[in-house]
Write a structure and sequence with these properties.
The structure is a homodimer. By secondary structure, chain A is α+β, with helices and mostly antiparallel strands. Chain A has a domain of 116 residues: Jelly Rolls (Sandwich), CATH 2.60.120. Chain A contains nine helices and eight strands. In chain A, the strands form two sheets. Chain A has a four-stranded antiparallel β-sheet with strand order 1-8-3-6. In chain A, strands 2-7-4-5 form a four-stranded antiparallel β-sheet. Chain A starts with a helix and ends in a 6-residue tail after the last helix. Chains A and B meet through helix 3 and helix 5 of A and strand 5, helix 3 and helix 5 of B. The structure holds a DNA duplex.
Chain lengths: 190, 190
DNA sequence: CGTCTATTTGAATGTACTCAAAAGCGGTGG
DNA sequence: CCACCGCTTTTGAGTACATTCAAATAGACG
C-alpha cells in the first residue's frame, strides 16, 4: 500500500521516479497488532508515522494517571509527538495502535535528509504543518466557546470515520470530559 | 524597523539582497492606534501580519457574544486567521490592536508570489507553521490535563512579556475562564 | 463460557459560572 | 491639574455543569 502514501504526497507536490524511490527508501514499514505502543513517554521520539491502515492515537498521561487523547490518526493521516520529534526532546506523549495497523515511518535523520535532497518536500511539510496548525487552532476555539455536548456533536460531524474506529471512552478523553458524562449527552443525529 | 522582520526570517533561511528587496516590496507597513480592528469576522482575511511593535490579539465571538482569545501577538510574532487566510474563507475571528502597534502585512496574493519566486520561503513558512502547530498542540494538552490555576501559572511562566502587555480579562478569555474566577486564583511567583 | 473492559445510571460533591456590587485605575476634558 | 467616567479587577452569594465514586449492564475477545 505504498500507493497510499505517495498519493497523499502527490496531492501537494509532483515527484519524479527518482524522487519517489528515494522517498520510499527512507521509509520503513511496520504492521502492528492492536494496543501496541509505537512511542512511550520519556523515550526519544524517533519517527513520524504515516498510517496506511488501522488507527493510532497519541495521549498524554498526567501525574494522577489521567489520559488525555491528543489526536487520532486513521488511514492517510500522519502522527507523532511533533514537538519532541522536531526538537529531539524526550516524548511527552504515548502513541499506540487502537487496532491492527500498518504504518510507514520516517526517522528524524531521514526527514532531514529528505528535505536536503528534495527541497520540494519543504512545500509538502509546510502544507502538512499548516493543516495541523489550523486544525488544532479550530480545536482550541471550540474548546473555549462550545459546551461539551456541542463539542461532541462537532467531533462526530467532522470525523465520522474516527467515531467508527474508537471507543466512547477515547472520544471523551479527546473532548476533555469523563466517559460517564459523555454517556449522559444527547446522541447527535449523524 | 524592517530589520526586525528580516532578522526574524534570517533565523531560518539565508536571503541575498535581491530576495530581501523582493520580500520588502511585497509587504506593506501600518502604524495603528490602540483598539483598532485589523480584521473583522465575516470579512475576507487578506493579510498575514508581522508585529514590529505593540501587541495584537485574535478572538472569536460566539452567538451569546462571549469572546474567546485565540492568540496574542507581541513584537516579532506573526498573526492572522490562518485557516481563512489560506483557504480564502470569510474570517471566523476578529483581530485588534491591544496598544498602538506597527505591523507589516503580506497579502495572500503576495504570499503566493513570494513562495513561487523564492522557494526558500517554503522552508521559512514550514518552520513557522511547525512552531505554531506544536504550540497549539501543547495548549490543547494543557487545557485537557491542567486545572485553571495551573494553566494560568503556565501561561505566566511561558509568556511573561505578554502578561505585561494585556489585561487579566484578556488572559482569562485565553485560558477559557471568567475574569471573576481568575481573580480568585493564587498569584504565581514569577 | 468466562473474564475484562466499555458503557450506562444514579447519588453526592466540587469546580467554575452568573449576577451583583464595590473598589481600583487610567485616560480625558474642563 | 484634577475630577469624572468607563472599564478592569476584586469579592461574595447562589447556582449549574461536570466530576467522583459505586454499581449494574452490555460487549468483545480468547
Amino acid at each position: 500500500m505504498e500507493d497510499g502514501i505517495l498519493k497523499n504526497i502527490s496531492k501537494h507536490i509532483l515527484l519524479n521516479d527518482e524522487e519517489r524511490s528515494l522517498f520510499n527508501s527512507l521509509l520503513s514499514c511496520k504492521t502492528l497488532p492492536k494496543k501496541t505502543l509505537v512511542l512511550q513517554a520519556d523515550q526519544d521520539c524517533r519517527y513520524l508515522s504515516y498510517v496506511s491502515s488501522g488507527a493510532l492515537r497519541s495521549y498524554y498521561v498526567d501525574r494522577e494517571g489521567r489520559e488525555s487523547t491528543i489526536m487520532f490518526a486513521i488511514a492517510d493521516w500522519w502522527i507523532t509527538d511533533m514537538y519532541c520529534y522536531l526538537n529531539r526532546k524526550p516524548a511527552m506523549m504515548h502513541i499506540e495502535t487502537i487496532e491492527k495497523s500498518t504504518i510507514f515511518q520516517l526517522s528524524r535523520a531521514n526527514f532531514d535528509q529528505l528535505l536536503e535532497a528534495v527541497p520540494k518536500f519543504e512545500k509538502f511539510f509546510r502544507i502538512m504543518m499548516q493543516n495541523a496548525y489550523t486544525r488544532e487552532q479550530l480545536r482550541v476555539m471550540e474548546n473555549l466557546s462550545l459546551t461539551a455536548e456541542e463539542r461532541y456533536h462537532s467531533f462526530v460531524m467532522k470525523y465520522p470515520q474516527i467515531v467508527r474506529q474508537v471507543t466512547k471512552k477515547q472520544i471523551a478523553s479527546y473532548l476533555g470530559i469523563t466517559p460517564e458524562f459523555l454517556s449522559t449527552l444527547k446522541k447527535p443525529e449523524i
